[in-house]
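Chapter summary example: a protein plus pyridoxal-5'-phosphate.
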Amino acid sequence: MIDLRSDTVTRPSAAMRQMMAQAAVGDDVWGDDPTVQQLETLAARMLGKQAALFVSSGTQSNLLALLCHCQRGDEYLVGQDAHTYKYEGGGAAVLGSIQPQPLPVSADGTIALDLIQAAIKPDDVHFARTRLLCLENTFSGRVLPLAYLQDAARLAREHKLASHLDGARIFNAAVKTGVDVQVIAEPFDTVSVCLSKGLGAPVGSVLCGSAELIKQARRWRKMLGGGMRQAGIIAAGGIYALEHNVPRLADDHVNAALLAAGLRTVDAVTIDTAWVQTNMVYMVPKAGTAEALTQYLHSHGILVDPGTTIRMVTHLDVDKADVLATVAAIRSFYSGA
Ligand SMILES: *Cc1c(COP(=O)(O)O)cnc(C)c1O
């Protein structure tokens, strides 16, 4: 199978599994797991923050950040299509009584600064207290401009808001632009990073921020049932991912560009190549063909994320030959149809 549905489908390599199997472990809730501690130290250092917390998922990491930054009755500003708002089950509202203020996201993944500014509520009993700005980078594979991130975080600071970056794929942004990941993370109070996507670890994310905030996040994590015991086994996969799988994200970007370029030669599908910046390709098939195309690809051993716009994500278990085979299959679907 060529599985292009997501970069979450990556499986741990033999070398990663070996490191996991040999990991020194202890009870992490007691603070005894040296491998978890090693991962947290490594992640904090790489992201340029004081501390980090190893958590089960990106969803949990973002939720912990929201719970730390906002109290009951507070509000966070977030993109209408942001993961933190749209794809996390409403966790902030359900578990934190935190009100989202969703804002429209521009095609480049940014939220216009004037919209952010206008959404910040004055101190007035009618309003929830606006406390936090939440951005996402990369957003649908798009790299948010560094100057924008800095300006947006500054705007937040000027209004005494905290800032959180959902950096699930922040390393894709860093590798794509050549900007150090610390520089991208620097304007934000907290940054969440997924280890289980393009970086190839089987499980886990890290939340990075100040020592004080991470201490508070550790308490929330325990409350949410996220205190894990001999978690060094999975943390070792995360260490391996950070130590070995960052530079190779460039291969995924090359493969996504190759996929997009190949599909540009198929008349029946449309690709907006300007937005193919990292490891994601969004393809709009000719009206009425998306479902049949998806089924055809499936029957030819190719899995895609279905919809009227089909998403394809490159990752470490997809190589150049897989990309060429995918382009060929899509071409043959339309030439046969
Ligand atoms: C995947 C993802 C998350 C959540 O990660 P899970 O581990 O799936 O919970 C958060 N934000 C973004 C942008 C993501 O792509």
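Key point: DSSP finds 14 helices and twelve strands in the chain.
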